[in-house]
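Sample entry follows:

:::
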Amino acid sequence: MLKFEKLEVNGKKIQSPANQLWRPPPENFYKINIDGAYDPNTRTGEWGFVVRDSNGEVLLVGAGKISRAASAIQIEGIAALKAIQRAAQLGMTRIILETDASVLVSALRSIDIDRSAHGCLVRQIQDLMQMHFSCCSLSLCNRSCNKVANLLATYGASMLASDPEMYTSQVPEFVKELVSGDLSGVMLNITIPFKKNPPSTCPNPRPRARPIDRRGLPLLQTPDLSLGRTAGRQACLPRVEAGGHPARGGGRPPGC
């Protein structure tokens, strides 16, 4: 089922303080940060996005330029559309789409028919989320959590008209420092393997007593295959008479 929601902790919505750091998604989720910029003077725009896993590892980045744009929300919407299209192509099914554009988040969460100029784009994004993802959450963040996507959008402004889009699984050099800065808030889980033969917890373990029969002779534990269990058998030790001399008749119990 498709979900449009803010991230919550114990049923309370997370507030975004000004110095909040980027946080990785839960395990088996992918977080997509998007950003866009619009220049009303030239009526152009640029967009960027980054996809990361629960360890903060960058899986994909994208950037591009729009030579004819109508509004800032259109650019933000195009960034979202390009990002989730690529995520769907990679087979991702559980994503968190994070942006600092509150207008876009409100539009995507709305179930009303959007008759504005960007309504068709919003509906296209919603349909794509519904068809290709089993779980899709929307997260509204502040700009301090969106620095990598913002810098990628800035890079998009330098793209040529003949090649206006860029996608790569390699982290570009100009964003490596920001990616590392985001990872500074990620706590890594370190697993220490157990030793194969751990020492006994008892400092002076007591020896186990060996079972004996009614005559005081030790019993050997031998497998009884017919009964499917371990049965006791008298040990094959020489019988002795009083005085310590071996007994007559072979000196061993019957069956030995």
Notes: Residues 1-19, 187-207, 222-237 have pLDDT under 50 and may be disordered.
